[in-house]
Design goal:
9 helices, 232 residues, single chain, mainly alpha
């Protein structure tokens, strides 16, 4: 170690591992819930029945309205809707658990004062960092999570490519979504407003993929550096 031949490896604390496990389980249930809803829509579409726009509360009623009088579809949909109802209940339970954890974590509460940062983003980042003191400065956060561009240098050639994508991909996704909402809010500084409501943290729409390069990459990196500074 003292000769520099080996690099120290950080072992996550039990609390950080538990939060990551909860986030992973929540994401799994969210994905299965989405799959079941889309599968029901696809089955009905084959019979010429279009579900159309719905909310989580109106979805089941709309399905039952469309399949009324069709015995085969009623048997299929009733079974799938029972599974969906169970997933919705478990999904809500994970959300309550994560909200309770965030309310008791000072670092997460500070992060949620940043526009665009809600419960999920804050807990994902705090669990990934775990021990802020292992970073010498906030500038080390970007490279740690693969937010800095690849560099190719040879002679007079100096090319900057896409971000390296090294490290935890869930943190990049969370920070990118936060940066997207932060830029949309029009705030000039990450800590300029007091925000961080649960709607931001628990959006259930389409997941935004991390950027290859472009203006969002810089905003994501700045949010990450600000976040590590606020957790010290």
């Amino acid at each position: 170690m003292r000769l520099g031949w080996f690099r120290p490896v950080h072992c996550k604390s039990l609390a950080a591992q538990e939060v990551r496990a909860l986030l992973t389980a929540r994401k799994l249930i969210q994905g299965k819930l989405h799959d079941i809803e889309m599968s029901i829509r696809g089955i009905l579409r084959g019979f010429g029945l279009k579900v159309g726009p719905t909310t989580r509360c109106t979805y089941a009623g709309r399905i039952r309205e469309l399949i009324a009088g069709h015995s085969t579809l009623e048997a299929i949909a009733s079974s799938l809707l029972k599974v969906r109802d169970a997933l919705v209940q478990e999904f809500a339970g994970f959300e309550r658990t994560l909200r309770a954890i965030a309310r008791q974590d000072d670092n997460a509460l500070r992060l949620m004062t940043t526009p665009g940062v809600g419960v999920l983003v804050a807990l994902t980042f705090v669990a990934a960092i775990d021990a802020p003191e292992r970073f010498r400065s906030s500038r080390a956060v970007g490279p740690h999570f693969g937010l800095t561009p690849r560099k190719y240098q040879s002679g007079e050639t100096d090319h900057s490519g896409r971000i390296s994508k090294i490290g935890d991909g869930s943190v990049r996704t969370a920070l990118y979504e936060a940066a997207h909402l932060h830029r949309a809010s029009g705030s000039a500084h990450p800590g300029g407003l007091i925000g961080g409501d649960d709607k931001t943290g628990f959006r259930t729409g389409t997941t935004i993929s991390p950027p290859e390069q472009g203006p969002f990459a810089g905003t994501v990196d700045r949010l990450g550096r600000y976040a590590i500074s606020s957790t010290r």
